[in-house]
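HUMAN: Now follow token order:
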Amino acid sequence: MPESVTLSDATNRFVRQIENSRSRNTAKTYQNGMKAFLEMYKENENLEDSELDSVLVEVLDETIVSDFSTYLKSYSPTTETLYINVLKSFLEYLAAENMLSLNLNRVKMLIRHRTRKPGVRLPQFPEEDIRKVLEYAESLPSILCETETDRLINCRDSAFLLTLADTGLRIHEICGLRLGDINWRTGKAIIIGKGNKEAIIRFSDRSILAMRNYLGLRAELGEKFALARSALPIFSRHDKGAGKKTLPITTKTGRMIVSERVEQCLGEDAVGTITPHSFRHYFVTMVLQATGNLKIAQEFARHSNIAVTQRYSHLANEELDDTYQAIFGTPRTGRRKASDE
């Protein structure tokens, strides 16, 4: 016999298990998905928050998938797919924990037939503008500053942008880098990346040099720290709120670094056209352009599915562009020469 458990209690148990076994970002997604599910159930059953506490999981059956899918039509197809998979995991959890008897094959069939398929969005980024931002980043340490703190921030931001572009690190990964993560002799680091998976990251000579210069300046200016040196953040805060403590930058600060430096380099209109993730797109495309090898690009990008990497191949395939020009003879400006008309 399945165990009698309320829907609220089962939800809390499920979310706690996810928090204990998955990354923080994944847990947040599951929390949001389950919150949307409970909102749907209350709305469909005309329940108050307090009444939900007395609802047993036994009221659920396979058709709840269809109900939730209908409720999610006001969301984007991508979010619908994400939250439906959260519900699928919840139902599998209930069945595995003997809280609910379900036909899981029917659940999967309903998901397949009732949910929208998100369109595949090809990654877009302004490659030339990113190159300009990286040139600007390399010049930051040589810019004269009024204060040592400003000089320190310039060195940090230079190293941050160059490392983003040359490693393909995600924003939360680069903000979480510690001194002890990097083998400075080999130019490699072992990190825990997306999905709590261990990964090896390789650093370019210029990113290593930029980080060394930044860390050297921090030491020169008398950085004080209470933690072991290996636990120190690579990229630290230099604002008044941090005081004399060596605190890691947050992902919010990382995004601000990109926005502010993009504005300084390209102007106000360019803000938002380049994000931290744009540098990851740039990194994968550079690997593809240099190697033409999807498998290598997949390994560097740490994509579990090569189909994700394949989306970048259209950006790297200049041979198709050249072939098109050879056939149709249209200059890259989009206008034919007068002699061609």
User: Anything to note?
Assistant: Confidence is low (pLDDT under 50) at residues 332-341.
